[in-house]
Structures are given as structure tokens and as C-alpha cells.
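Supplementary Methods, section 5.1.

A reviewer requested that the exact input to the structure prediction be made available. We therefore reproduce it here, unchanged from the version used in the analyses.
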Amino acid sequence: MYTAQEVIKDKFWIVYSNGSKIGTLRNIGQSYEFFNQSTDEKVHLDNMDELFKTAKNSYDQKEQNIVNIGGYTTGCTEIFDSVEGDIPMFKKSKNAKTFYAAGHYIVKFLGMGWQWASIPKVETLTKYQYKGPFLTEWEMQLELKKHRRGSEDACSDTDINGLHDTS
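The structure derived from this sequence is encoded cell-by-cell as follows.
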């Protein structure tokens, strides 16, 4: 029996046999096409459930279990040593030495100008001028566009959350 891991919801799967990839499966309307990479053969199937156990991709489930710090996303299902403050920060593993900043930011890199950063290292934020954190990627993208255009509407030395530039 094969196992198919979903890559694109209801459209494309990677097929495994005993833990090794053996091919791909794709939805082609009313049927499915299985490509066996070891034999370079394509087989058309009317119903994939007869031949495969499917392992649903757990993107949706993981998104529900993402840990937030003060409402700012960490992108992780488990965090360690979290600290709320001007920069909500955390470690990704128990023995890690690197702290990451929860949320979305814009950072002004030398020679590159303003760039976006989601869940950057705290070290990056202390090294470069930044704005944030922003609760959503949409807010961050809006502020990034303002800064790239040099708009007067862009945050001044203090951003909307009261954080200061590091310059």
C-alpha cells in the first residue's frame, strides 16, 4: 500500500512506499494520474482511495496551534523563554541562544533600503533601523510601501506602537 502526502490541496500529492518517494499523483478532473518515477510510467486512476492511504497536509491544523506573544505571531507551535516588551521575543528551542522577534517588521538594511521581515532575529533589529512590530503582514506591507516612497505619512521616529528607531 502506498501513502500519498498532499502538497496542493485536492490537486497534487507526493507518493511514498515504505517511506521512500516513488512518484507523484495529480488530479486531472474526474480522474487521477499517477506517475511512477522508478518506471517512468503514467497510470490513470478513477478513484485514488482504492490504492492509497492519503496523509492530509496539516497546514490548517498548524495555523490554529501557532503561539502568539501579545497578539504578535511567532510562526511556531511551541516557544521557549518568551519575553513581552517593546520587542516581543522568544527562543525556538529550549537550548537555543538566539532570540527571535514575534510579529512583522520593516528593516532598513544598508545599501538595500527598507525591506520586510517576519519574525526576524532580535540581533537584526538591534543592528539596523526598524519599525514594528505589526500585528498583520498587511499592516507591515502598507508601512513598507510608505517608507519606500518616502511618504510623509510613514511613521516618524516613533512608530504606531511607540517603538523607536535604533538609529
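The first helix runs from residue 59 to 64. These observations are discussed further in the main text.
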